[in-house]
Model the fold of this input.
Amino acid sequence: MKRLGLVIKAQQFDKRTVERVFTTAKRMEISPPAKLLDGRIMASLFYEPSTRTRLSFESAMKRLGGEVISTENAKEFSSKAKGESLEDSIRVISGYADVIVLRYYKEGGAGRAVAYSNNVPIINAGDGIGQHPTQALLDLYTIKEKFGKIEDLRIAMVGDLVNGRTVRSLSYFLAKHYPKNQIFFVSPEATRMRDDIKSYLDKYNVPWVETNSLEDVLPKADVVYQTRVQKERFEKSDKYSQVVEESKGLMIGKHSLALMKPEAIVMHPLPRLTEIGYAVDRDPRAYYFKQAQNGLYVRMALLKMILDEY
Done:
């Protein structure tokens, strides 16, 4: 038996470990071991606001019998406001906890933290526009739960793809371990998927198509992975209003459902704004709340695999 160690990026996982996450998550969903992490402490250190990721990790830890120390917006309400570096914060907090769940506002933050954590495992809960590997794992778990497989599917990633760390991590996983799918990148020109992801898909011979027409893709897609326009990523740009306007054609509403396959699903990492209409919630193809619930089970699995064994 062994331990996972840390979770920094999608590329670190081999397929066997990914599948072990899935089987462990299913066990957590059915019969979680309530005292497994008794006496262990998780620190959730979030430099950006979060609801689902932070609370699901904290719930996961508590359901396994562990304890949580937490700060919701460390950028504003911690020593960061006094000018303390990430490195110094990690040095200190690693003396308080057995695992640190870190969300940072700049790409590469989780990788930086590893060097200063005194061997306390770091879990990347999102690093700017970089990656969000635990979200991608729960996304894959949701897809497999629905279809029984992650192959021979047409997966559309829609919206703000240039800033979307969730779709970046999902693309890495799909390319490396589940290449027998076709990817559609659907976005305005200003928020197209970055070239490094496209090159990674090419490396693993994953077919992909880039378009700005959601209506053309909906009849083909098995999975429609919608994302919001991330206003916080446009603070130093004047393109936000333009992107919002151009994204109106990518909204999913009743008209979209009429174009979709009966067995297809709509996913979203949440929170949503206007990109999915509330009327869609009543359709059985709306999978985003199930997806969010799955985050609890996947994060329970990861905590077990890091702090216990697998």
